[in-house]
Design brief:
By secondary structure, this protein is an all-alpha fold. It contains 4 helices and no strands. It is elongated, with a radius of gyration of 16 Å. Pfam families: Hemerythrin.
Length: 136
């Protein structure tokens, strides 16, 4: 389980709220895995991620476009790469079934995304807004 830390907040309430929602789902998946129920929870988690990424990435990219965020292109590439990974995992589950390896991979991907992308890359959006004296 990962506890939400204020340091994960980027300073944009809508985005921070969506990030907290992702952490909640991640923790539900961790909990299921630690109770030997990861196989049952993986399809639900992947379904959530597909919907989440569509809405969340769209919101984030729209905001970055509005504020003329200089790293929008790189950020979009990272989003596309994450979506590709989620779709590949979903396809693997559909064709090969759920395995311990897929549950471990999903755990790793989600943890890495939360700890690396959100706390480093997304944080730059809030810092950029703060430098400009703006809020979103």
């Amino acid at each position: 389980m990962i506890a939400w830390k204020e340091s994960y907040d980027i300073g944009v309430e809508k985005i921070d709220c969506q990030h907290r929602q992702l952490l909640l789902k991640l923790n539900e998946f961790f909990d299921a895995c630690s109770n030997q129920q990861g196989r049952d929870k993986i399809e639900e988690t992947l379904g959530f991620l597909k919907e989440y990424t569509l809405e969340h990435f769209s919101n984030e990219e729209e905001l970055m476009d509005e504020i003329h965020f200089p790293e929008l292109g790189d950020h979009r590439k990272e989003h596309a790469e994450f979506v590709k990974t989620v779709l590949e995992l979903e396809e693997a589950v559909k064709t090969k079934g759920v395995s311990v390896l897929t549950t471990i991979k999903l755990n790793r991907i989600l943890t890495d995304w939360l700890l690396t992308h959100i706390s480093k890359c997304d944080k730059l959006i809030g810092e950029y807004l703060a430098k400009r004296g703006e809020t979103a």
